[in-house]
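Input sequence (163 aa), recorded before submission:
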Amino acid sequence: MKFRLWVSAVFLATIAAISGCRKHAEAPKPDPLLSAYDTEPDWTDAQKVIPLSYQQAQGKLIFYQQCVWCHADATPAGPSNRSNLVPVPPLLNDGATLNVESDEYMQNIITLGGTAMGKSAMMPPYGRMLSGGEIRSVIAFTRAVAQPPYQPSARAGSQYSTK
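Predicted structure, token format:
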């Protein structure tokens, strides 16, 4: 009888030790792609995939319907028209150019068009075609694919500041 109690105690101690080790092990980091609504291949690195939120995925759909012809080098249908335009529009992922623009500025140029903002007349106004939410989705997609990656400004008093 004492032997059985001793074996049971050793068995329980072993189980407790094993399970105790698991509590201190680091949990694996969640893969952001598993929680993404959609993805976009990185335009500068074919090995990288960018996870997209729902809003960014909605912006992606609009981009590939309306903007890809001038703001990408290629479209799903083949080459874009970008190289035929003067001045050449920035690529949508051109973070060096677009990251410095505020969300308000980007909303205005998409809504009002290039002429209203002192830019190229080739940029049409989309304010009557797209809702404000759809335009914000395009901006969110732009920020998601930007290279170098977009870092939001923390300007005090800005509607979009993080503080």
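Checked by second reader. The domain at 38-145 is CATH 1.10.760.10 (Cytochrome Bc1 Complex; Chain D, domain 2).
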